[in-house]
């Protein structure tokens, strides 16, 4: 049953990400990082990252090199991008989804979605961690509600879903210009 909840939560995150990418951007949302040309997609060593085995996954990094290093995914899905020219791709690995976005015929890391408690951030936070453990590891969030905490670092965000005092979802994502 716990695995089904993880799969359902991951599916909801992917669906939400897809719908958010198709939404209107007339609100002019801005990131706390510096902005440059819309086709810029440089890796951010100062942002949040995730390590799987010996593979460090940085947001906005070249996805092909990371996917090659991670090896064959358990599952793969692609769909026409609403926000970019080309295909958005989702690679499923044990415990997480790796989401990419296209720019100039090249794919970059958009986000990493945790699916279960078998993976953790570089600071040791995973699904099932407590809110206090998150605050101890990362300090006070940029945004907080009863159900989520959002941390910002460089051109990345980490969104932590909460169920009471427990982490129920975790996504590390790039802040991109569309």
Explain what this protein looks like in three dimensions:
It is a single chain. This protein has one domain (2-19, 43-174). The protein is of the alpha+beta class and 178 residues long. 21% of the residues lie in helices and 35% in strands. It comes from Candidatus Blautia merdigallinarum.
Helix and strand composition category: alpha+beta
What's the helix count?
3
Mean pLDDT: 82
Shape: globular
Q: State which percent range the strand residues make up.
A: 35-45%
Q: How large, in whole angstroms, is the Cα Rg?
A: 15 Å
Distance between the termini: 38 Å
Query: Order of strands across the widest beta sheet?
Result: 3-4-5-6-10-9-8-7
Series of secondary-structure elements, N-terminal to C-terminal: HEEHEEEEHEEEE
Main beta-sheet strand count, sense and barrel state: 8 strands, antiparallel
Work out the helicity level.
10-25%
Poorly predicted regions are 1-44
Describe, in short, the structure shown:
This is DUF4825 domain-containing protein. Residues 1-20 form the signal peptide. By secondary structure, this protein is an alpha+beta fold.
Features of this protein?
signal; DUF4825 domain-containing protein; alpha+beta; 178 residues; disordered N terminus; two-stranded antiparallel sheet
Question: What topology emerges from the helices and strands here?
Answer:
Layout: H1 2-22, E1 49-52, E2 55-58, H2 63-70, E3 75-80, E4 87-93, E5 96-103, E6 106-114, H3 131-138, E7 143-144, E8 148-153, E9 156-163, E10 166-174
Antiparallel strand pairs: 1-2, 3-4, 4-5, 5-6, 6-10, 7-8, 8-9, 9-10
């Amino acid at each position: 049953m716990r695995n089904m909840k993880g799969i359902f939560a991951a599916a909801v995150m992917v669906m939400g990400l897809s719908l958010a990418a198709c939404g209107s951007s007339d609100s002019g949302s801005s990131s706390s990082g510096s902005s440059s040309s819309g086709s810029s997609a440089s890796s951010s060593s100062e942002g949040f990252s995730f390590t799987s085995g010996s593979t460090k996954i940085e947001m906005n990094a070249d996805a092909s090199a990371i996917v090659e290093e991670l090896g064959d995914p358990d599952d793969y899905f692609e769909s026409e991008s609403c926000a970019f020219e080309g295909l958005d791709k989702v690679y499923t690995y044990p415990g997480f989804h790796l989401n990419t976005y296209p720019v100039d015929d090249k794919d970059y890391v958009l986000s990493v979605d945790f699916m279960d408690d078998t993976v953790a951030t570089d600071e040791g936070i995973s699904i099932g961690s407590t809110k206090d453990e998150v605050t101890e590891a990362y300090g006070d969030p940029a945004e907080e509600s009863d159900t989520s905490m959002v941390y910002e670092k460089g051109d990345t965000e980490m969104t932590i879903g909460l169920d009471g005092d427990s982490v129920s979802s975790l996504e590390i994502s790039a802040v991109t210009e569309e």
